[in-house]
Amino acid sequence: MTIYDISEKAGVSIATVSRVLNGSSNVSEKTKKKVLDVINQYEYTPNAFARGLGLNTMKTIGILCPDSSDLYLAKAIYYIERKLRANGYDSILCCSGYDLETKKSSLNLLITKKVDGIILVGSSYIYEKDTDNKYICDAALQVPVMLLNAALDAPNVYSVVSDDFTSMYEATLQMINSGVKDPLYFYNSTSYSGKKKLAGYRAAMESKKLLKSGNMLQLYQGSHEDVPAMAEHLSKLAAKGVIFHGVIASDDTMALGAMKYAKENGLRVPEDLAIIGYNNSMLTDCCDPGLSSIDNKLETLCQHLITTLMGVLNGTEMPKQTLFSGELIKRGTTLD
Predict the structure, then answer these.
(1) Is pLDDT at 275 greater than 70 in this prediction?
(2) Any idea what the Cα angle at residue 246 is, between residues 240 and 252, rounded to 5°?
């Protein structure tokens, strides 16, 4: 028995069931009685709750991330935990890695801790196959599940997403329009977000009829911390005769790899090699010239995600998906 079964048997919406369980005053006594009668009939025990009745709420949110050493994910966790504390909630952080089975066991572990909701940080938790996403749908039968920068259309799952496709599309066009007709896309992820970025780059290149070789799509599969290996990847590519005068990277660390490649090969930035990163992280000020990068509004995304979660926990109807636009912040690695 889940809140969805209760909703169906009582003939009310899921949000109404949630309001009753949270003790909301925005429910008529008649509707409240219908819901409580179903709960009592089937001996339904809410997860750590009956919040509005004052019973055993944990005031705790589970946070799942694949790798807390990743700059983007670590910053997201910081913003999320800070916003949760401001709303009177504690958090339990679990680092799952990238293996599906480990993600499943980590998610189940958080469920056993009787958390009031779960936040999945990053887009690697969503898969193309519906069967691979079942672990998220199953968790959402018990608590609200929030997705940061990924989307899944399922009951009790809420998504806050950066428009990575459009951000990458517009950044690629800006580099092309500045005179760089052969920008290379340098990426290290095929996650939900990674695929959106790749699609944005491809669409921009194809709109200008410039995507003539698969060599312009370079997938780096080494450590996300190994900047020298990223530079070496580009050096080997150039040694094979692949010509490129621009690099658009899927994150700022990859862009630093391109900066190192330029320095090692005597290339002027941006005159000989223009570079754009992604995430607008602290790394943008760790090189000379400063790194142009796409700001995906991470703090805004995290703040909105917690606002949505608090609304859901309070029984308020909240949007299932919210999309935010990114912005290219120009510094010294791109041409005007």
Answers:
(1) yes
(2) 105
Residue 291 and residue 189 in one domain? yes
Distance CA(19)–CA(29), nearest Å, equals 12
Give the pair of three-digit tokens for residue 259. Answer: 């900066």
Is the same domain home to 157 and 105?
Answer: yes
Do residues 277 and 331 make contact, with C-beta atoms less than 8 angstroms apart?
A: no
- Cβ atoms of residues 88 and 59 within 8 Å: yes
- Give residue 49's pLDDT band: very low, low, confident or very high (50, 70, 90): very low
Task: List, in order, residues 6 or more apart from 116 with CB less than 8 Å away.
Answer: 47, 48, 49, 51, 57, 58, 59, 60, 61, 89, 143, 313
Spacing of C-alpha 216 from chain mean position: 25
- Domain span holding position 135: 60-162+298-325
How crowded is residue 22: how many other Cβ atoms within 10 Å of its Cβ? Answer: 21
- 107, 135 Cβ separation under 8 angstroms: yes
Residues 264 and 281 in one domain: yes
Residue type, 16: T
Task: List the CATH number of the domain containing 113.
Answer: 3.40.50.2300
Question: 280 and 291: one domain?
Answer: yes
CB of 144 within 8 A of CB of 156?
Answer: yes
Name beta bridge partners: 159: 147, 321
Q: In sequence order, which residues have a C-beta less than 8 Å from that of residue 99 and are 6 or more positions away?
A: none
pLDDT band at 55 (very low <50, low <70, confident <90, very high): very low
Verify that 69 and 88 share a domain, yes or no.
Answer: yes
CA 249 to chain centre: 17
Summarised one tens digit per residue, pLDDT across range 219-233 is: 999 998 999 999 999
